[in-house]
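User: Can you model how zinc ion sits in this protein?
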Amino acid sequence: MGRGTSAARVSYYLSKDRGFPLFDPSVYMRHICGNGMCINPDHLIPGTKDEN
Ligand SMILES: [Zn+2]
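Assistant: Here's the modeled complex, given as structure tokens:
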């Protein structure tokens, strides 16, 4: 997982939460379906390091 802003983050931002901090590296995007390539916003949950 990557550098910069992933398609998943943008997908979540556009579909779910326009307040999501796209460019904040301390906020992670987790895939509940286990597919790192998935960009279905229904499968994405934002989380912080502490929640890991
Ligand atoms: Zn998925």
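A couple of observations from the model: Residues 7-51 form one domain. The CA atoms of residues 5 and 24 lie 9 Å apart.
User: Helpful, thanks.
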